[in-house]
Structures are given as C-alpha cells and as structure tokens.
Automatic annotation (TrEMBL):
It holds the Pfam family RES. This is RES family NAD+ phosphorylase. InterPro entries: RES_dom. It comes from the Bacteria. Residues 73-205 form the RES domain.
Length: 230
C-alpha cells in the first residue's frame, strides 16, 4: 500500500462523555514531563489499567493547560482498541466538523447501549473539545474502494495492523497521524493523531450535547450550550 501525506489545517472536534472534569486534574500539579509521568503512573495503579505510559518514550508527553485531556486519549482506552489503535496505546481521534463528530460518537454509544438488555432508555451528556490542526498526515481519503479493509464498519483487525506498522512510536520515525473519510457520515472527514505533541494546546471547551434514547432506542440529540465559533 502506498499513500501520500497531506498537510491538514483547521479546527478539529472531539466529543467525550461529560463525566470527565472540565479542567484536567493534573494540569496544575504537574509542571514538567517527569512530574506528569509520576502522576499518571500513580493513576494507573489505582485504575489497574495496562501500563501504556511505558509505550511513550521520553519527551513523548505534553504538559501544560489541558494536557491531561490529551494524554487521557492515549492512556485510558478500551482494551479492544479502535479503528487505528490497539490496546497497547491510544490515540487522539477527532472530526473536522461537529456534525461528523456527533455521528461518530452516536454510533459507538448506541452500539454499546444496544448490547445491554437494559440499555434503553438512556441519556448521555458529551462535551466538545476543539483543537487546532496543522500537521502532515498520511492521507487515506478516497481509499474505501481500493482498501476496504481499512474502512470496515466494525472489524478493526486489518486497520489496527496497518496503523501499528506505521504509527509513532512503534515505527521510526513513524507517522504523526492519518486523515481519513468518516465511516459513519457520508462526506465527513476524521483525523487520528498518534503523537500527543501533534495536538496543539490548549484544547478549548466547545458545546455540550445530550443524547437521549427512548425505550425503543430512537435517538434525539440536544444541544445544551452555544459557543461562539468566530
């Protein structure tokens, strides 16, 4: 497989469950990478999560305002991984517009709830994280026909293997990330960033949304706040 790189600029939008604190708990107590590594190592002990911190080489962490939000995407991930990461280390996923971010998160949360006999009705609140984007990314857009294995709806084995061979820090020098077509929203685009430093700080707080499923699993998306995007 051969793909070119593209410079991708603009805003990116990531939606996460709002149970996470708006201000990272480590932002004010970890002044440098050594202190942040210690804080995350202690957190790993309490959460009993795999030691993903060890996968990040020295200099691989970011520090400063909202750094803990970024690092959480790499350290606190589901064991089954995602489209372009496995259990060894997470990644920062975002969409290039809010509508795509909503469709991506609706799909994954609906699937999780539907797998439980008592999943519906349900309400989830999510908050938007807005980050700048200016990076050279491997361009996978338009490859659905020629590389269908990277765009399978729910089977990530091939796409995870593809990424593992190319992503930083497992490949050297390694790709900073990919830009690719959204599987959940036609015409939407997403990015995945493999290097924490590729996410510019600070990450800004955007809107809050609430996903409301009725007893039949029918969804209503509510916008709880309105942020000036000028």
């Amino acid at each position: 497989m051969s793909f070119s790189r593209a410079r991708v600029r603009g805003r990116s939008h990531r939606l996460i469950l709002s149970r996470y604190p708006t201000v990272g708990v480590f932002d004010d107590i970890a002044g440098d990478e050594a202190e942040l590594r210690l804080a995350f190592a202690l957190e790993d002990l309490t959460l009993r999560t795999p030691n993903r911190l060890a996968a990040l080489p020295e200099g691989g962490l970011v520090t400063g305002p909202t750094a803990s939000i970024v690092m959480a995407a790499f350290l606190h991930v589901a064991d089954e991984g995602g489209r372009f990461h496995d259990a060894a280390l997470g990644a920062w996923y975002a969409a290039r517009d809010v509508a795509t971010a909503i469709e991506e998160t609706v799909h994954h949360n609906h699937r999780r709830l539907a797998a439980s006999a008592g999943g519906f009705p349900a309400r989830l609140q999510l908050r938007e994280l807005v980050a700048g984007l200016d990076a050279q990314l491997l361009d996978l857009r338009g490859a659905q026909a020629s590389h269908q294995e990277l765009y399978r709806p729910d089977d990530y084995a091939a796409s995870q293997a593809f990424a593992r061979e190319r992503r930083w820090p497992f490949a050297q020098p390694g790709e900073d990330g990919f830009v690719y077509d959204s599987v959940r929203r036609s015409g939407g685009e997403c990015v995945v960033l493999f290097r924490p430093a590729a996410v510019p700080l600070p990450v800004l707080q955007g809107d809050h949304f609430e996903y409301v499923w009725d007893a039949r699993g029918e969804l209503t998306v509510l916008k709880l706040t309105s942020v000036d995007r000028a």
